[in-house]
Amino acid sequence: MKPSDELVAALEEAGSAQERFEIMYDTLRDRISVSDYPPGTRLSEEALAAEFGVSRSPLRKALKILEADGLLQSVQGVGTIVTDVDLDELTQVYQLRMELNELVGRLSPKHPDETTLALFEDIRKRAEALRSAPDMKIFARLNIDFFHVFVRLTDNQPLVEVSERLFYQTCRIWLKMIPMMDLAEEVAIFAGEIAAITDAVRLGDTEAAGHIRRAHLSMGFARLKGHARRHTL
Amino acid sequence: MKPSDELVAALEEAGSAQERFEIMYDTLRDRISVSDYPPGTRLSEEALAAEFGVSRSPLRKALKILEADGLLQSVQGVGTIVTDVDLDELTQVYQLRMELNELVGRLSPKHPDETTLALFEDIRKRAEALRSAPDMKIFARLNIDFFHVFVRLTDNQPLVEVSERLFYQTCRIWLKMIPMMDLAEEVAIFAGEIAAITDAVRLGDTEAAGHIRRAHLSMGFARLKGHARRHTL
DNA sequence: TAGGATTTGTGCGTATGTATT
DNA sequence: TAATACATACGCACAAATCCT
């Protein structure tokens, strides 16, 4: 991986072990989620520790948590491997995520403040820009960022945490399946979803936002399933 | 803590690191959940490692995951402390758990097999026995065991995992509040819940079981709130 | 089949931070 | 305020497991 001076700098000026852990954890999760580390990648504890400028011990903590999250798997004598995502195994996760997204609109819905509204508008602009120049990696990044903005609609922190966990378990499926699908079309659909949800949010109808999100999650999964079937036949 | 020969034996004959981790993780989580380690307890890595017959390194992994679960908090220079449970902070978790329990009956409900039915009946018997001789610790253990039997009603594994995570975040609140409440009454109510749910399960009405569970979760939380208010006034 | 290279798991000593006297 | 005790965080060396030649 790249040397990334600012990353090492951030780690050096991090005061507590907790902060250093979060930087390494977020960095690794992000790299996995945007396919800098595609499924099957073998990560070396030693190499990562060297890159981050720390010893193996603190790095291992981040790897262990990511293993508990289902994104990595450590095997003695082999290495730390980025897990694969399988559409069939994600069926149940998707069903649960659909319900949870509806709950975002129903459980402690928060009337969006100025900041949140601005974030939604920013995402919408980025989605429109992406529409003009579809790109898989930017699509993946937008998907992640949109998730984090969307969960701002609820004040229920446990719901946010659970949703995040499940989101990161599923989001890589798009990176895996998009090559068999029509990227431009998917980007357009996603931009439409973002626009619709942003409109709902602006109207203060958080519950509607949740329902739209749920519907798109359902349709998205159906499209994934359809393409997978078409591809195997 | 007690020497517990069989625990050490199980750890010794565990083949993989993964198995050893799970034994230590489950053991510690259980001890925290039944108040062998009450909130505020300072756990010593060294002492635990000695008790388990391992070095501090593998033990630390279990502690790190329990910290991620919200049951422990490690502070350098101080120790590893069992977190406290606060009723107000659990409000959101309870709201989410209520919804999730309903989902157990709606998402991939499983028609209970013979084994599951037998487990429910066993829990019911234990609840009746407890009714004759109320005991806080046995109550806590029954609550935990019932949870694990209940989630057998769904085939949705992610739902089970998420529910488990949230359950262990909340279940200690009863150990904290019961001393201010009427143990015998709470045991009787719990026995009633178990009987009702077992009946629903025997009829094959998993959805009804989910609704009953949801209702009791809601009422239980209301009683906790009521007693907390009464106690602070 | 055997052995060497490589990887994670483990054990332990040291650094660093906290609380108490 | 300073010193001491003690806890976790960290670094490193070795053990154990796996893979490849």
TrEMBL record, chains A, B:
Transcription as UniProt keyword: yes
Name recorded for this polypeptide: GntR family transcriptional regulator
Family matches, as Pfam families: FCD, GntR
Keywords: DNA-binding, Transcription, Transcription regulation
GO molecular function: DNA binding; DNA-binding transcription factor activity
Alphabetized CDD domains for the sequence: WHTH_GntR
Organism of origin: Roseibium aggregatum
Keyword Cell membrane: no
Domain HTH gntR-type: 18-85
